[in-house]
Amino acid sequence: MLDSIYLGMTGLMGYSQGLKVIANNTANMNTPGFKSSTLQFGDLVYSDSTSGDAGSPGMQHGKGFGLATHGTALNFNPGELRQTGNAMDVAVDGLGMFTVQDADGNVRYTRSGQFQFNDAGLLVTRVGGLKVFGIDADGNAGIVSLDGSRASPPKPTGTVKFSGNLSSTATEQTVGSVNVYDSTGTQHTLSVKFTNGSATNPGSWTLSILDGTTAVGSGTLLFKDGKPDAASSQVKFDYTPPGQSPMTVALDFSKDVTSFASGNLSTLAASGQDGFGSGTLSNVSFDTDGFVVLTYSNGQTKKGDRLLLGRFDTADAVESVGNNLFRSTNDAHWHTGAANTEAFGGVKASTVEISNVNLSQEFSDLVIMQRGYQASSQVISTANDMIQELYSMKGKA
After folding, report:
1. What is the rounded distance in angstroms from the CA atom of residue 8 to the CA atom of residue 11?
2. In terms of CB atoms within 10 Å, which of 35, 55, 342, 365 comes out highest?
3. What share of the chain is helix, strand, coil (3-state, %, to 5)?
4. 3-class DSSP state for residue 342?
C-alpha cells in the first residue's frame, strides 16, 4: 500500500508537469514563431522480470515503479502566416529559419521575423535586438547592414526618349520640358526646336537643342513613310552644363514617334530619360527571395544583402533556448542557405508566422491531464484509507 502511494505520487508529479507544458503552450498561442511542445511520458522500470513455469506463458512478477517524464518534444509544424502591413515583418514559407546572433556571439535560429534596423544600421530583431545574418553580393555570410546604402548617387542622363506625332505639314515645332541630369544630380531643362526641311529634302527636320536661348547642340532627323529612318533615329550632342564636364546625350526617336500630316498640331514630347538626381533611403522591405530591397527618394531601388536561412535534418538536432530562439545540438544535421533554394522555402514580406498552438488540442489534452491527476489522487486517497483501516484493525486486536 505504501508502494501504491508512491506510484500515485509519480502520477501527480507527471501530470503536473504535463499541465505546465499545456499552460505554456496556451499562454504563447499568440507569440510569433512559437513552436508548441508535448510532454513525453513513460513507465518506470519494473523491479523484476522472470519467466513462468515450463510450458506456461511468461509472466511479469515484479511491480511497476510508476510514471516517468522524459522531457518535451517540439512541434515544428508551420503556424499561420498573417499579414501585418509592416514592411519589416517577414515570414518563411517552408522549412527555413532565420539565423541570428545573440549578445554573447552565439548563433541562434528563429521563425519570428520581426526585424528593424538599429542606429548603427544593422538589421536586428525587434525583441531582444539580436543581429540578423545575411549573405552579401559575394556570397559571404555576415550581419545585414545598411553601410554604403543609405544614399543613392546621381546618374547623368544618357538618353532622352520621345513619343508622339511630329506634324509633317508644320513648318516648325518646339518641344519644351526636356529634362536632363548632370553628374552632380542637378536637373537642367532644355528645349528642342524642329525646323521642317522637306522643301529641299523630303521628310527631313533640322534640330536645334537649346538651354534657355543658348544653342547647345544640333542634328538632323529623317522620316520615311512617316516613321524615323533607323540611321538618323538618334540625335547625339555634347552638352556642357555650367561648371561641369561635357556629357553626351542622345535624343531617341526610334520608337513611338511618327510624322504624319495633322495641320500645325504636333503631339511630340519627351516621354522619359535615364538620368536621376541623388536620393536618400526612404523605405526598406524584403522580396520573396529574401533580399533586402532599398527604395530611395529619387525613385530608384536596389537589392542589398540576402537573408541567411538555416534548416535541420532531424528535430533531435534542435533545442529551444527561450525567447522564440533555437540552437543547434548537432551541426552535422544543420544546413544554411537562402530562400527559394533547396528546401529552405520562400519569404513573404509584411507577414509574420504566428504560433502553431492548436487550442482545441490543448483543451483536449488539458482534460486528459486533469483526469489523470484526479485518478492518481484517488489512488493515494484509497491507499491511505486502506492503511488507516489496517491500523484500526491492529488496534482492535
Report:
1. 5
2. 35
3. 20, 45, 40
4. coil
The answer to whether residues 101 and 133 touch, using CB atoms and an 8 Å cutoff, is: yes
Within 8 A by CB and 6+ apart from 303, the residues are: 287, 291, 292, 293, 294
DSSP 121: S
pLDDT band at 7 (very low <50, low <70, confident <90, very high): confident
Specify whether the CB–CB gap between 159 and 253 falls below 8 A: no
Provide the H-helix boundaries in the chain: 2-27, 359-396
β partners of residue 294: 284, 302
Q: In the predicted model, what is the mean pLDDT of residues 70-83? A: 90
Ordered DSSP codes for 270-297: EEEES-B--EEEEEEEE-TT-EEEEEET
Report domain extents, the chain.
Answer: 2-76+356-396, 87-146+281-352, 159-273
Query: For residue 184, how many other CB atoms are within 10 A of its CB?
Result: 13
pLDDT surpassing 70 at residue 297: yes
Asked if residue 329 lies in contact with residue 320, where contact means CB atoms within 8 angstroms, the answer is no
Phi, psi of 282 (to 5 degrees): -115, -20
Q: 26-56 as b/e, with b when 16 or more CB fall inside 10 Å?
A: bebbebbbbbbbebeeeeeeeeeeeeeeeee
- Report, at the CATH architecture level, how domain 159-273 is classified: Sandwich (2.60)
**Beta-strand relationship, 334-337 and 269-273:** unpaired
207-263 pLDDT, tens digit per residue, is 999 999 999 999 999 999 999 999 999 999 999 998 889 999 999 999 999 999 988
List the Cα angle 318/324/325 in 5-degree steps.
45
Cell of 371: 483526469
pLDDT at 323 over 80: yes
Q: How confident is the model at residue 47 (pLDDT cuts 50, 70, 90)?
A: low
104-127: burial string, b at 16+ Cβ within 10 Å, e else: eeeebbbbbbbbebeeeebbbbee
Q: Which amino acid is at 213?
A: T
The DSSP H or E segment spanning 328 is strand 325-328
